[in-house]
Amino acid sequence: MSVSVGSADSSSTSLVAGLRDGSDEAWRRLVDIYAPLVRIWCHYGGVVENRIADILQEVFLAVHRSIDKFSARDDSMGFRGWVWMITRNKIRDHFRTPPQPANSVGGSPA
Asked: Which pLDDT score, from 0 to 100, does residue 6 have?
């Protein structure tokens, strides 16, 4: 079954509108649709499995913080491209930030 570009655009438009309105259903749709995709992008980007959940959270938090700034008219990539750009930046941040040593129990570095 093929999906026409128009219906894909209207689907993204309704998703963005729901996200801006704070709709729980829109956020569930976002996670259902984009979490598997972000996971794949993380794998391709070389992120180890135990860090992907952290990047997923960072991506969706960035979407939450920036959804009001997204404009399909100004962004030739569309919504999926915008989420890809956020993911790519979070993957880059992941590799720029040195790993933090684990905190030891008991308040001693030993």
From this structure: 38
